[in-house]
Amino acid sequence: MELVERYLQAIGFWLPASQRQDILAELSEDIHAQLEEREAATGHPLTKDEVEETLRQRGAPILVANRFLPQRSLIGPLLFPIYLFVLKVVGFFYMLSWAVVMLCIVIFTPHGAVANGLDEFKGFLLHGIFIPIGVITLAFAILERTQTRTRFLEKWNPTELPPVVNPNKIKRFDTAVEAVVGLIFAWWWFTAALPFASLHIFHLTLTFAPSWGYFWWGYLFIALANTVLAAINFMRPWWTPLRAAARFVSSTAGSVLMCWLFRANILASMSAPSLDPRRAAEITLAFDEWAARIFPAAVIVCVFIAAVDIHRIVRVARARSERGPNAIAPNQARPHP
Amino acid sequence: MSYGESPMTTESFENLRLELRRGCLVLAVLAALRTEQYGYTLRKTLADRGLAIDESTLYPLLRRLEAQGLLQSQWREEDKRNKRFYRITEEGALILQQLLTEWEQIDSSLKAVLKEETHGTR
Hints:
The complex is a heterodimer. Chain A is mainly α. Chain A has helices spanning 2-14, 17-42, 48-58, 61-68, 80-108, 114-128, 130-150, 172-192, 212-235, 241-263, 277-323; strands at 198-201, 204-208, 267-271. The longest helix of chain A has 47 residues, at 277-323. In chain A, 8% of the residues are buried.
């Protein structure tokens, strides 16, 4: 029966000291009773293998001991969804902030050193992620203990719940601002930044490359189109697939123009009475070089804008298909069930 | 596993079966301990009546019920061995009565629902 004693000792290791002897005494009695009954049934003293089989059927010591312990978890089922949500949000902003850092390395590091800079940075990125995860887990573990004692999550008020948000509804204030800003921009663009012209700022004269004409017309057209779209949205303040698609087209056109602008060596020359022509040429060259370097950042911003627009199209189309062909507009009141 | 049963179905059934049994076992243990018994005989009594329960479930359950004041226990020597005998307390008997009433209500409600379903599908 040495095997039984070893089994009990292994169970006892996981039990709280205050209850250990009591639980083990009872388990010991149960095991011995079972073994005796089996001996009586077989008609011979049990072999080592038979004892081993009996103990195996009872389960691993840690599992047996675990049944006697109170159920404990670092973060319980009540807080776990919140924990997961916070992890996702923090993970997103963590990755976003590091993406900005990575972009800065690409933009501001001399060309030859970019690879080294990124290699060093990858190490920080991989190790650094464990710090926020650890801090959040610790905070939630503490919160779990507090929740168990104070039940603070159970104290809530229905009237304090946030209002229902319909993402496909457009805020009139936003569209009004958009329309006014679009009009002001279009007017300024039309009068101050004429195509094929130089821009005069105090005594400084900036002369643009011939391709400036495309940008001028392009941005003027986009500004006017956005103003019209904002006016329509103001009158009918909910997204439709057509208007969401129109917004995507205008954003994409603006994005393409912007990316092209950064790569177009748009500043042809600059001059000022007090500026040495050679110095002016250096500044012009540096300006165009930096614009070209910012190009990757511009592409990322444009991809982000396109993703937001595509998400809106999908969301609107999905909402429409869920509501069916006889759907009422999302801003109209729905009858209460 | 019978024809058409996937491993997932079997697992789901097993989980639901355990869930269903969990509450019933408390009732069965309280009812069986209206007569004083020690752990091993209690386990055998329940197994003989079709409610097999393994020791790692039974003993923690007995402790929990005792901590709640529904059972009382006493170490005593029997057949030259120390055994812990359990018996239902007065409070436990009262709770058992209430639980049995609840059980009967659930049973009749379920039967009524099943009867409605049977009529509804005809």
